[in-house]
Amino acid sequence: MTVLGEQVRLRDIPTCFDGVIPSAIATVDSDGTPNVTYLSIVHRIDDEHVALSRQFFKKTEHNTIVNPLAEVGLVEPETGRMFMLDLEYTHTETEGPVFERMRTHLDAVAAQQGMANVFKLKGVDICRVLSCVMAPCDFPEPLPPRTPDLEKAEAFSRVVGDADDLEALLHGTLQACEELLGFTHGFVMLVDESGQRLYTVASAGYSSSGAGSEVSAGEGIIGLAAARRQSVRVTNMARDLAYSRAAQASASGEHAPRDTTIPLPGLPTVQSQLVTPMLVRRELVGVLVMQSERAGAFTAQDEWLVGMLASQVALAMEALGGIERTTAAAETSDDERPVHVKYYPDDESIFLDNEYLIKGVAGGILWRLLREYQDERRVEFSNREIRLDHTLALPDLKDNLEARLILLRKRLDERCGSVIRMEKTGRGRFRLVVARPLALVAAAGTADEG
Amino acid sequence: MYVVSEELRELIESGVAVSVATADVSGRPHLNTAWGPRVSPDGATASVFIDRARSQFTLEDVDTTKRIAMTVGDPVSYRSIQLKGTATGVVLEPDGDDRDWVRLHREAFMVSAALVGDPPALLRNLWTEDVVRIDFAIEQAFDQTPGPDAGRPL
User: Fold this and answer.
1) Given 3-state DSSP classes, what are the helix, strand and coil percentages for chain A, each rounded to the nearest 5?
2) ipTM over 0.90
3) Other C-beta atoms within 10 Å of B124: how many?
4) In the 8-state DSSP scheme, what is residue A7?
């Protein structure tokens, strides 16, 4: 539309670049014929440059080569104000940080539908911004800027510093996300020993904790953020899903099946998601996932702040890695009905009365605890003895043991808290509480978890 | 000349998001949000409305180069098509029927956009009350639905 008016700095309208509302782009062919289509991402590089995703629009691609001028309309999601960007195409990039960032975002959109190929980013078109002006509208006032509360950020640092075990640290982290940023739904997933899978160990704000739910690195939005060591921010899931379904129908793409025994924590209608990798010396230790039912809930500023929090938590986790002590004692109950505990050594899965409970390392640990309970009536255990127990034949647990125990405890609380549970009795110590007799059976094959 | 089918007319006249593009004599593109797209009974021409407050450059282009492109997209299904053609006229003071048509389209668009999570407060600021009408002869149509077929002539 090209409007006359005051020039607006791109940095002053950051949410226009969040992709909540699609942007239209107009270009012109060499014969003067205009073309208009919609763009999935306009990325702000700096106040003078933006990058446009080059995916499907063949005509736009052609036009920008013969005539470098383009006009893009950006809508500010909180206010509906529209900003017109007059652009001049300079060049296309097929690698580098801007390309990688935009590729990850597009792959995240695709990952929601399990279709990795349709959204292949061919390149990003770098454009110089000739002008940015607000289009006339009925409500031209901006919203007051949201500034982070530094006092609360400092308080969070102290929570992280004071945490003397992993559970306190992760609980404090999710609490800080709520108090500091107002994010009431979040969970933490940690990387397992293989480095290829993540499992949920703490969550807040969900009807079910999802403890023990897993994703593979590269699978879905969470797995993508983990695999690329890059935060992923989805601002309008409903639109993204509609977009990917349309592209899927057009390309006859195929759905990839999902395979999680325990569902991830989730809201009925997630509209925004922010997945932040937790890294120590570039090594992935886990991801911090924030969700909201509101479109555009997480801004670029939130992404930076959560990135800082995630780094701090990752470092604190590493520092806590060695904390552990020892001990032993007893407690039982006299409900006579036995609970059938079946253990499948192949994948270390455990079923209680034919109902799946847990598998993998945590399953192996539980089996060991239950056997000791059964054989010796032992109920007091320490993290350290489990760490040192070679009969478990567990992989090198390192910092993961404590996380596995938290996971196991949560899973027991959720699935069978009235029968078997683990109670924390001190730093690095816990008690096994068994309310009914156990019938332990080690199976020969692998469980079919259906 | 291109004749719009009944099936495409149904899409064009539903609660779609609408954008138009024009170009000035130097080849500079001008984009505008638009409302109330309507296809003539014979399917050969279309009308679309733009906000008067935002209309200056679009109207100048329509007057000089006359080339116009209009893309409509369903916010829910993302099914999109683009019509290209030549402007045949401008109505600076649309009548009551036209205004009702625009109001109905905006209401339908609000419903579609709300389905994908756009808050009504945002949507309301996408338009102003006063509109002008542009009529154009349809010459070409393209599928603009995201995917490998985007840009395919219809």
Assistant:
1) 35, 30, 40
2) yes
3) 14
4) B
At A301-360, the pLDDT tens digits run: 888 888 888 988 998 888 876 433 333 333 344 456 788 898 988 888 898 888 888 888
The overall longest dimension of chain B from CA atoms, in Å, is: 42
Which residue from B128, B138, B124 is spatially nearest to B70, judged by alpha carbons? B138
pLDDT in tens, A134-183: 999 999 988 877 776 777 778 888 888 888 888 889 988 898 888 878 89
The answer to whether the beta carbons of residues B48 and B105 sit under 8 Å apart is: no
Interchain proximity A70–B150, CB inside 8 Å: no
Facing residue for B23 by CB, picked from A28, A57, A136: A28
Q: Is 0.80 topped by the overall pTM?
A: no
Q: Which A residues in the span 384-403 are in contact with B, Cβ-Cβ below 8 Å?
A: none
For strand A339-344 and strand A438-442, is the pairing parallel, antiparallel, or unpaired? parallel
Q: Please check whether residue B110 is in contact with residue B123, taking contact to mean a CB–CB distance below 8 angstroms.
A: yes
The token pair that represents A370 in the structure block: 């239950």
SS3 of residue A117 by DSSP: coil
Q: Which of residues 86-115 of A touch B (CB under 8 A)?
A: 86
Spell out the residues 6+ positions from residue A25 whose beta carbon is closer than 8 angstroms to its own. Answer: A36, A37, A38, A39, A52, A57, A60, A70, A71, A72, A73, B31
| Contact (Cβ atoms closer than 8 angstroms) between residue B136 and residue B50 | no
Backbone angles phi, psi at A369, to 5 degrees: -65, -45
Angstrom distance (rounded) from CA B43 to CA B1: 10
Closest-CA residue of chain A to B122: A80
Q: DSSP letters of A152-215?
A: HHHHHHHHHHH--SHHHHHHHHHHHHHHHH---EEEEEEE-TTSSEEEEEEEES-SS--TT-EE
Kindly state the helix (H) or strand (E) to which residue A370 belongs, with its residue range: helix A360-376
The values of phi and psi at residue A19, to 5°, are 75, 20
Contacts of B148 in chain A (CB under 8 A): 56, 118, 250-251
pLDDT at A214: 85
CA A197 – CA A191 distance, rounded (Å) = 6
CB contact under 8 A, A242 and B75: yes
Contact A255, A114 (CB under 8 A): yes
